Amino acid sequence: MNQNRVGQRRGGLRLWVLLLFAGYAVWYWVSNRSIDPVTGEPVVIDKNISTEQEKSLGLQAYQQVLRQEQPLPANAPVSRQVRGIAERLIASIPQVTDALAAEHGLQANHIEKSFDWAVTVLQSDQVNAFCLPGGKIAVYTGLLPVAQNPDAIAVVMGHEIAHALLRHGAQRMTRGKLEQLGQVAGAASGMDSGTLQSVMSAYGYGSALPYARKQEVQADELGLMLAASACFDPQASVPLWQRMDQTSAGNAPPEFASTHPSAGSRIQDLQHLMPKALAYRAKFCGEAATAGGMR
Ligand SMILES: [Zn+2]
Fold first, then answer.
1. Is 148 inside a domain boundary?
2. Mean pLDDT along residues 41-55
3. What is the Cα–Cα distance from 149 to 129, expressed in whole angstroms?
């Protein structure tokens, strides 16, 4: 066997690794793909990531945050107010997700039935809020002066609850799994890390942003419908995101600036959604109040 032939075989082997990975990636993508009934859009969530697993991860993360931050007592006036807003939003989830799914000729999966909701206000200057899988919600006191009113707080919380309902975390985990495997395959094929990075980013991988633009748009829509249906004023969303944008100009707060669409395009999208939000308000406001709240 001469040198030249050995070299060729090695090259062949490398290509095989990439082809194998590409084949696996396609199979993985297709076999884990489904249509989200609420958005009507395709999603890829690894079937091995169960909602229970996500929920326990959410709980662990929540407990850690509560240890690290300064939670306000549950009976503090602000805690009561924020919890009251959350209860109304949560109560509107069944009707809103049913109605949105029906628009796509589908049925909502009612993932919220498996949630154990909890709401905590954290004493912090951060302009932030989140809802972890399983329904663990936190609102930072720094958000309140920017939000200014319960309607705007409801818009932000609705948006965060929507991320959890739409399993955006599991979608990111799925992407992360494939991305890791791609890196291993790339390294095994002898591709240098620079080339690998550019190939990955060409396919939209390797993004450091916590939420993709598409997920933000989806969370805005579902969140706005939840807020409107729970009798909050969806029109509070436009000035809210304008204030948020001004706040984030100097120092970018976690969930709402660099990771989120620019205020301009977001506000346009929201204005586009407004007639629908007002229709949902007219239809569901009132029903939600009697549907029961948090455990
Ligand atoms: Zn978001």
1. yes
2. 90
3. 15
